[in-house]
């Protein structure tokens, strides 16, 4: 392999990074191109921490012969067996000592003193090199502060000095391309976690101008926890966040599983929408979410009561109407949400649940929009004046709806 190949491979990596191909495709293509050009690579791995509520990072692998999982996500390495494995790795050695490179000539008597080296040696690899390229403070996001990679060969003589020189030139280009792709993934993750999937998609597509919105018809969901204030005053302070997390998990997963989009978490409250070209389909999706939530709450409350922890219920208001869906706020602080009279109405409908001892109420507009075969399960509870809403509304519920706390 000569230096003209270096330019060709570096140009290819740059092009693929700009195109936004996946990190696994980039790693596979890079290693294959190096091998085809004469670099004796037989194994490669790259990994980088990320910014994600569940995963600590992502890793990408390549093998010249064996079919392997080309990418995987890993969880926190701060405790337990994961921490022990991390601290025995060549990458931890580099990171903790702020070194750029470490090599073990496995076929020539060097110690097998890091995790995975025994497996690599048993597979016939003769030489191993691990690298770390650390980012500056300005280039660090969360725990994503460096790019790790390792490479191994089965060549009888191991890596030559020329081989290592080639890797030292090319791996930073690979790291930059993978980091570029990872930053795009992080941006999407942050947007989805804090805005919701549909709002995040629209923001990532460029809808970030203040006042940019569209008028849509949607089924609206507003829910709250029963007796949240009373519970929060009676349980130890350290129990409040776990309680909110438990019930938010149940509500949000039920909504998402039924095709809805959560737009706001307001303390213990949740505002969500169900979009659809056909109103009946949007309303049916909201009712599926409500039914699924009841199942989840049954399991959750049983678990919490067995553990001696406070249990409660969720009350829900459902409505359908036209809303404006988009950006509101200042020039430098925007919220992507829904606004309009229908949003106010659904929150008022939900607030009546407590006074009528029902965990579900829906507007007459919502009840009229659901498929005819589903209306047999509805019961009208009367006409109610909603605070801040000009007209009184007939409200409906399901026969099975009763608050349990």
TrEMBL record:
It holds the Pfam family Guanylate_cyc. GO terms for molecular function: adenylate cyclase activity. InterPro entries: A/G_cyclase, Adenylyl/Guanylyl_Cyclase_3/4, Nucleotide_cyclase. SMART domains: CYCc (SM00044). Transmembrane segments: none annotated. Residues 219-350 form the Guanylate cyclase domain. GO terms for biological process: cAMP biosynthetic process; intracellular signal transduction. PANTHER family: ADENYLATE CYCLASE, TERMINAL-DIFFERENTIATION SPECIFIC-RELATED, BLR2264 PROTEIN. This is Adenylate/guanylate cyclase domain-containing protein.
